[in-house]
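Module 6 notes. Inverse folding takes a fixed backbone as the condition and produces residue identities as the prediction. Think of it as a translation problem where the source language is geometry and the target language is the twenty amino acids. Below is one complete input and output pair. Work through it position by position during the lab.
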């Protein structure tokens, strides 16, 4: 070989060896000391801050198998002394189902106190490939440590430490890309979401790597980051490639009682189909029904599963929808359909949504809902009709401020249940946590990655429930209801039971839980409403009412109270009136038969001191008792227009010369006057001396007027006024509004019979949040559970009683 050739060859070999040495040299960055196959790599801006944040959080302490929380919770003699002035790395690598390797990496200069002063036994130091491996204090999770180049490394496994020394570290390009994503100073988790357990038998690969910046707060956690897609079509997130994230709307349908919901959006059905084909490796074709849709969401309820498909053009979607369905019965004014033939299959969308074998379907505005049972369908319809859905909660509104308006995929975990979809990003297993009614995970696809947004905040019980109306029960009676259900005081629970009559004259007493306590067949329809009395003055209430031929007083066990019932040959023509002059439970029961009046005491005997026996013409309103100052007034309105205003003994107390054409409105007290609203809607005010002043109200035919204490309400068509304040209701066919006091507050209740909506307002005229709710009769309001929460009882379908609770 010539001298020049020898020189060139020597230089070439020098460059080759130098290149090999350079390829094995580390960059002196922490990423070069991370063990291979770690399932979670956590960058800590401050070791001490992270430790303090985890110590003060209420969420992490409730998570199952939270590697990060358990690590910092452990009273470790080594790490109890440690703090860092810069970024450090904490790695977790699963070895078996129950064990894992833990590795801590930090630049030598960032550790306080200096690394060589931290506790160790000093009894065992082994050299390995030129590095000294030292055994740490017995009982420490981190059993070994070494200074490798400029890095301090502590680990639970000697083998892992040796592998790091041998440069057997993580070189996956997707990991290095995720690790290099810039973030604010905080806690960043780089994880591998490729073994996400959907259930006991199904796992999915969500994406290649995720980098998530966590903000651990005393009230929960917020997280932002990215999920890398990579080149593989095996990743679930690849289904959204080329699709623009759309606004989610299904939260308007998700019932409050749901445990979890999961949905996805799309703007191009053809692109979605192509992506699903690649992901599933098949040649699927989506039915034409999906061409006018942009969102699919599955909901897990206690009763089962529902899938909601959101349409961007319901008129087109309904034509395709009817190709797969057959018309069935109706529920709450919603047409139900039975799935016909093979129906629509949602299997192609699994695991984006849960599996479902749909048997029923129905439409709620732009939402098409598919369910596996009648019970699920009724739950979804009931919640939607009553606004008892996720979108109407204060905690959703709070989370929405930190969520994106549009996303490719969203997971809602409710009722304190955290699924693996969410806990996998928190390095924990599925968990049940208290005071966390909602956790949200969003993925929004963008080129070859997806933005991650995660919110899970603690909510106080008062915040969690405020403004919600939930259905406590629905009860189907043997026959359609004859009149609206009422509350009846339960002296044992101090709450309310429910009393109602059906068209077969069966009287029911239902508990606040919906149980039929007893049924009793009456001899006819109850006139007017049922009233409560305490006949024995012992706090135990009885039901008092009349039918056309009987005066009943029944105790809460369904038994008549002697000497009642009282039977009559002549027809009773007005509802029962009960006078309790001094509120001492010394009752007077007034029975009306045409123009005849019978007044009984609590023993069922005629009150001999009451001398008023009959009127000149038929009595047209239930007799009334009104007290002004220290005087009692008994009022009897006659068909001939005469208003008798009498004393307790039946003598004329106020002489009224004017005749009135009485309407159905009872005589009211307004200030120190009696008020008559006649059938022409003229208002007549009568003083205690009998002076009458009249005015024309110029109102609609359905005008109503009622006063309770200092609160006055009127209804003029759809215009409701409460103490003069105008509330304009939607046009409808309304029941007469009525006032009720519950839990020391006054409320107004009114029902739109046309739309079957019940409204409840406070006396300032504010609609209670969560209303209107579904109902087809006048409603009653009271504290059914004796828990300082109001409840509303109302008729639903023809033979249905519904009880709602109002928070």
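Target side of the pair, the amino acids:
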């Amino acid at each position: 070989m010539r001298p020049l050739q020898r020189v060139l060859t020597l230089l070439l070999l020098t460059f080759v060896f130098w290149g090999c040495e350079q390829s094995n040299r580390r960059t002196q960055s922490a990423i070069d000391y991370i063990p291979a196959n770690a399932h979670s790599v956590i960058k800590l801006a401050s070791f001490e801050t992270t430790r303090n944040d985890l110590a003060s959080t209420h969420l992490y302490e409730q998570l199952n198998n939270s590697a990060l929380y358990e690590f910092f919770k452990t009273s470790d003699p080594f790490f109890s002394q440690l703090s860092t002035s810069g970024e450090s790395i904490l790695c977790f690598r699963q070895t078996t189902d129950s064990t894992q390797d833990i590795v801590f990496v930090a630049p030598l200069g960032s550790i306080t106190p200096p690394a060589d002063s931290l506790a160790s036994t000093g009894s065992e130091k082994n050299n390995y490939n030129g590095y000294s491996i030292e055994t740490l204090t017995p009982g420490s999770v981190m059993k070994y440590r070494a200074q490798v180049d400029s890095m301090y490394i502590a680990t639970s496994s000697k083998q892992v430490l040796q592998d790091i020394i041998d440069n057997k570290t993580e070189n996956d390009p997707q990991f290095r890309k995720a690790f290099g994503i810039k973030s604010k100073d905080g806690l960043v988790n780089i994880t591998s979401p490729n073994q996400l357990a959907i259930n006991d038998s199904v796992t999915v690969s969500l994406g290649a790597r995720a980098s998530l910046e966590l903000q651990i707060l005393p009230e929960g956690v917020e997280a932002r980051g990215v999920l890398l897609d990579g080149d593989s079509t095996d990743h679930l997130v690849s289904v959204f490639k080329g699709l623009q994230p759309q606004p989610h709307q299904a939260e308007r349908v998700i019932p409050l009682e749901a445990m979890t919901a999961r949905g996805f959006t799309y703007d191009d059905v053809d692109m979605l189909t192509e992506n699903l084909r690649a992901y599933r490796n098949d040649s699927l074709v989506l039915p034409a029904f999906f061409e006018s849709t942009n969102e699919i969401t599955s909901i897990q309820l206690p009763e089962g599963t529902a899938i909601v498909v959101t349409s961007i053009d319901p008129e087109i979607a309904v034509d395709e929808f009817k190709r797969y369905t057959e018309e069935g019965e109706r529920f709450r004014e919603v047409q139900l359909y039975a799935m016909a033939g093979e129906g629509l299959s949602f299997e192609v969308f699994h695991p984006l949504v849960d599996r479902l074998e749909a048997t029923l379907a129905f439409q709620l505005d732009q939402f098409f809902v598919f369910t596996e049972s009648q019970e699920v369908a009724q739950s979804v319809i009931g919640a939607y009709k009553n606004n008892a859905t996720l979108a109407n909660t204060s905690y959703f509104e709070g989370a929405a401020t930190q969520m994106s308006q549009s996303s490719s995929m969203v997971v809602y975990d409710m009722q304190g249940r955290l699924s693996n979809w969410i806990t996998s990003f928190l390095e924990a297993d599925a968990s049940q946590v208290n005071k966390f009614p909602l956790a949200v995970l969003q993925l929004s696809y963008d080129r070859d990655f997806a933005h991650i947004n995660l919110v899970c905040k603690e909510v106080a019980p008062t915040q969690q429930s405020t403004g919600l109306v939930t259905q406590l029960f629905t009860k189907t009676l043997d026959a359609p209801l004859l009149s609206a259900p009422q509350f009846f005081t339960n002296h044992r629970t101090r709450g309310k039971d429910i009393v109602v009559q059906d068209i077969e004259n069966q009287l029911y007493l239902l508990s606040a839980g919906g149980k039929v306590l007893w049924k009793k067949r009456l001899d006819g329809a109850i006139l007017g409403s049922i009233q409560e009395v305490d006949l024995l003055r012992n706090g135990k209430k009885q039901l008092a009412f009349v039918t056309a031929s009987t005066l009943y007083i029944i105790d809460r066990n369904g038994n008549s109270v002697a000497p009642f019932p009282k039977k009559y040959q002549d027809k009773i023509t007005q509802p029962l009136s009960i006078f309790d002059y001094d509120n001492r439970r010394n009752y007077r029961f007034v029975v009306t038969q045409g123009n005849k009046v019978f007044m009984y005491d609590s023993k069922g005997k005629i009150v001999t001191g009451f001398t008023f026996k009959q009127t000149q013409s038929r009595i047209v309103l239930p007799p009334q008792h009104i007290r002004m100052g220290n005087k009692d007034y008994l009022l009897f309105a006659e068909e001939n227009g005469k208003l008798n205003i009498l004393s307790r003994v039946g003598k004329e107390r106020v002489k009224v010369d004017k005749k009135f054409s009485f309407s159905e409105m009872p005589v009211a007290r307004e200030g120190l006057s009696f008020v008559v609203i006649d059938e022409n809607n003229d208002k007549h005010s009568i003083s205690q001396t009998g002076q009458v002043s009249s005015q024309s109200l110029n109102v609609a035919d359905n005008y109503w007027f009622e006063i309770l204490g200092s609160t006055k309400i009127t209804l003029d068509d759809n215009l409701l006024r409460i103490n003069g304040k105008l509330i304009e209701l939607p046009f409808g066919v309304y029941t007469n509004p009525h006032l009720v006091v519950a839990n020391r507050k006054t409320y107004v209740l009114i029902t739109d019979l046309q739309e079957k909506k019940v409204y409840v307002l406070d006396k300032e005229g504010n609609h209670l949040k969560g209303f209107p709710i579904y109902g087809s009769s006048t409603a009653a309001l009271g504290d059914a559970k004796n828990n300082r929460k109001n409840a509303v009882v109302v008729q639903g379908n023809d033979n249905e009683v519904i009880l709602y609770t109002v928070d």
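Reference fact for the lab report: The radius of gyration is 38 Å.
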